[in-house]
Amino acid sequence: xxxxxxxxxxAPRWQVPGxxxxxxxxxxxxxxxFPLIFAALYLAHWSLLSLPYYWDEAGYYIPxxxxxxxxxxxxxxxxxxxxxxxxxxxxxxxxxxxxxxxPEVTREAVLIVAAFGLTAVWRLSLLVTRxxxxxxxxxxxxxxxxxxxxxxTLAHADIFAAACTxxxxxxxxxxxxPGQPSRIWPAAIWxxxxxxxxxxALATPxxxxxxxxxxxxRTSGPARRRSFxxxxxxxACILPLALWYAYHRAKTGFLxxxxxxxxxxxxxxxxxxxxxxxxxxxILHLTGHMNLFVPVLCLLAALMLDPILARDGQPRPGIPRxxxxxxxxxxLGNALAFSLLxxxxxxxxxxxxxxxxxxxxxxxxxTRVRWWPALVALSAAAFIAALFLAPPYGFAPEDNLTYARVxxxxxxxxxxxxxxxxxxxxxxxxxxxxxxxxxxxxxVTTPFTVxxxxxxxxxxxxxxxxDPEGYSAALVFSTKEDPPPLPFHLNSASMEEQxxxxxxxxxxxxxxxxxxxxxxxxxxxxxxxxxxxRFRRSVEARLTTDH
Length: 547
Hints:
By secondary structure, the chain is mainly α.
């Protein structure tokens, strides 16, 4: 009797492994996806892997991990504790123990985390769009987006928290199909790891709690019970964070870090006018920053077109409406949360949100534009340009590859000091003061004595003028990107100075003139500059004569 089951035709010889999975919309195995992502990231970041540490890396995260590596202390001892959870320190210390304490090891370890996060972007995009090409496009755009690209090798806690948050959303965001059991407990585990990487990752599970409570009000029976169950799982991530803070208080006497850290990042940010201004910044960060306006404008244009019809005459499916609403709440909720928290409006706080913006853009491209890959290519080209070109407004160097140029400028200036003025007391400001005094950061082998300023504004230079014998050289540099002013501003200058730390540094020539020194080294790259100033003091002349 013949077998009633029809036989599938053999696959063509040219078909690549996994092509049927790719074409059917089912995910490729992660053991295939992750190595490909990591290899691509490694090649793209090859020239950045040996750079020494910079900015918040040098100021907190590397010293905290270095202290744990040397002493086993979860509380930093060589820098002021901020009560950030210890997961990044433990992770980096394990890599240093296995492979050695070098910047290359650190950056490769962070690159693994970034690749892991991008694997979550692939999986999440595939689940919500049900299209492998759309998932690949979202993955590509996220990897190329300048903020994500730059943070992929920087040892900040935000990339750790983003990777864990995105994996939690893989389980929490897509709505289960009817009859399919909901698996929410893996999301609780990933959210717990996310908040142990950085406490501000708590924003996303709390937003999901709000969404689940709203869904419970609209439903009844099993659906309502499932919503309340989800609430319990989302709130479970508070427990490990609470235990960490209890441990921190027992060891230091402070619950949320030192008082100044708490004031700067929480209590001083709750002025209504400041919140409104910060929210405006955050909306721009999520719609226009670093050429993000290109896919967003393409999205708005695509929405004016009629949906593309599939072969059955129905519109090509995109992100389900309920999932789209949840994504929108997460985007706006995170924008609001990071308008309330965080003294500095750093874009890296929004790392897990950028893939959500991009997956919406790609989904709309695919469902309304027949040649939608062209819009993806245009967006990718805009992101690549933004990696190298500065926008016409102030931004943090870590938002694109400007940070690498700044590091190389600092390396060159410190090399000049090391070669020609090894015994000098150097006037400078943070982060160069750490770069000059901490050999573990990769700039010096023998520490310098430093004379610390807050910045290079007129009041700080006037303070240095009052103590001319306190230093014999100066390392001065641009502390921020300061392009020519635009004809319009989101806030007034006074508001920017009051709430967001806006200040204007003096140039190297004016600093040298006011301090009566001579510029012996100067370099400029784009908007950034660095200079070494030499002073001839009578006390130094006497010491030279004695020798």
